[in-house]
């Protein structure tokens, strides 16, 4: 699981489609596709690539994303003006922010390393050699207590 929690060094800027919301993160890790139904419906596409960053290494530069509680343990943030998916916050992952790498200015710097929720994929998952998980990521991926983990929904 080390490959999942090894940070990608550096600062990354991102924002929504209309530019109202801008953010900056440093040393993110754990970039991976999520094919779950919630991500599919929220994005309108087959998957979202999420990456994790410590909250203290993330800053909202402008704008105020709206919040939607997508499950009893997760909230999702998006731009109220253009609808762009931006952040995912788990109640049981305090201090951690997941952000959609598609909102980065240079997403190619943070390539996905795995697929989650392949059991729910709407279209065939590409044969790209990346590890696949039928459901959420194993707890150890985020180096947090096992009882509090499994991002995905
Ligand atoms: Zn926007
Ligand atoms: Zn998902």
Description:
This protein has 153 residues and is mostly beta strands. It is built from two helices and ten strands; from the N terminus they run H-E-E-E-H-E-E-E-E-E-E-E. The protein has one domain (2-134): Metal Binding Protein, Guanine Nucleotide Exchange Factor, Chain A (Beta Complex). The strands form two sheets. A seven-stranded mixed beta sheet has the order 6-7-8-9-4-3-10. It is globular. The protein is 7% helix and 34% strand. The chain has helices at residues 2-5, 37-43; strands at 11-15, 22-26, 29-34, 48-54, 58-62, 66-71, 74-78, 85-90, 96-100, 115-116. The relative contact order is 0.23. The two termini are 20 Å apart. Bound molecules: zinc ion (2 copies). The site of one zinc ion (ZN) has 9 residues, from loops.
The gist of it:
The chain has 153 residues and is mainly beta.
Helices and strands in order, then pairings?
Elements: H1 2-5, E1 11-15, E2 22-26, E3 29-34, H2 37-43, E4 48-54, E5 58-62, E6 66-71, E7 74-78, E8 85-90, E9 96-100, E10 115-116
Parallel strand pairs: 3-10
Antiparallel strand pairs: 1-2, 2-5, 3-4, 4-9, 6-7, 7-8, 8-9
The protein binds zinc ion (2 copies).
